[in-house]
Amino acid sequence: PLLKQWYQRRVAITAGIHVHEQWGLGHSTQLSCLAMGATGIWAGVCAEGAALGHADSTTTILNLIRLGNTKVQGQFNCQYLREAARVVTEVTTEGLTPARTPIYGDRAVDLVFGFLFSDPTAQGGFDLCKFFGLEQDIRITTMASPEMILLKLEKVFGKDEKFNLEIATSMKEQILKNAADDRKEEYNSKVGLALLFDQAGGKMTPEMAEAVEGDLKTSQHIDNLIAEIKKEKSTDCDSALIPLL
User: Each residue of 87-109: pLDDT tens digit?
Assistant: First the structure.
C-alpha cells in the first residue's frame, strides 16, 4: 500500500526491493513490488543466499522481458544472464547448478509435454531457448506426443523415410504399454530410442543398429569386469578366514 501511495502521489524516490525465499512466492513478491512502483531490486545474479536463497536478478529480469519490458535489454547483457547465473552458482556452492532451477537449470529448456503446453511460442509466447541461443532438448516420456517423438528421431538419427507420425504413434503406444507392464525403460539415449523404435515395429536404420551393437559390446565388457571383481572379492574373503579349531 505504501508503494502504491507513493506512486499515486508521483513522489520522486528510489525504492529498491530485496526478497528472501520462504514459501515459494519470492519472485512473485518481487515482481509485484516492481509493478506497484519499486524502482529496482537488490539481488545476486543467482538465487544462492541465506536460508532458502533469494529472488535473483536473472529470474526477475527474464520475467520482465517475457512480460514485454524492453528497457532492461538495453541496460544489461541479458543473453549472458543464464551463463552468469550458472557460473556464480557453481563457484559459490562448489557444485553443479540444480537441474530444476527455473531459467538457468538444465531442465529449464526441456520440451516435455505436447506442443501447446510445453512450447509457449505455439501461442505467441516468449521463447527462452531462442533468446539464449540454445537448442531445446526433447524429453521422451509417457507424456510425450507422437510429434515430439518424431522430432526426437530426426534430431538423433537424422531424417529418414522410415520416420513418420505413424511409427511415432506406435512408439508412444509402446511407451504406455511398457509402463503398464512395469518395465523401467529409458528412451532419450541413442540406444534407448533405437530399441523403442524396434519394439514399435520399425526396422532399424544402420546408425541405430550400430548404436545398439556398440552398447551391447560395452555392456558385456562391464558384465565381465563385475564378474572378475566379485570373483576377486570372494577369493580375498576366503583367504582371510581364520581357523577357529
Answer: 999 999 999 999 999 999 998 88
Give the closest residue to 192 by CA, choosing from 130, 120, 144: 144
Question: Which cell goes with 203?
Answer: 526396422
| Segment 11-27, tens digit of pLDDT | 566 778 899 999 999 99
Angle formed by the axes of helices 81-93 and 57-66, nearest 10°: 160
Q: How far is CA 208 from the centre of its chain?
A: 25
Closest by CA to 107, choosing from 95, 96, 116, is 96
Distances (CA, A) of 236 to 141, 227, 239: 44, 14, 5
Specify whether the CB–CB gap between 33 and 26 falls below 8 A: no
**DSSP-based three-state secondary structure for 77:** coil
Q: What is the DSSP string of 120-178?
A: GGGGT---HHHHHT-PPEEP-STT--HHHHHHHHHHHH---TT-SHHHHHHHHHHHHHH
Q: How many CA atoms are closer than 13 Å to the CA of 192, on its beta-carbon side?
A: 14
Cβ neighbors of 8 (< 8 A, separation 6 or more) are none
Contact 63, 30 (CB under 8 A): no
Residue 124 has pLDDT above 70, yes or no: no
Angle of CA points 21, 81, 135, to nearest 5°: 110
pLDDT digits (tens, 9 = 90+) for 46-56: 999 888 999 99
- Cα atoms in the 13 Å half-sphere on the side-chain side of 31: 15
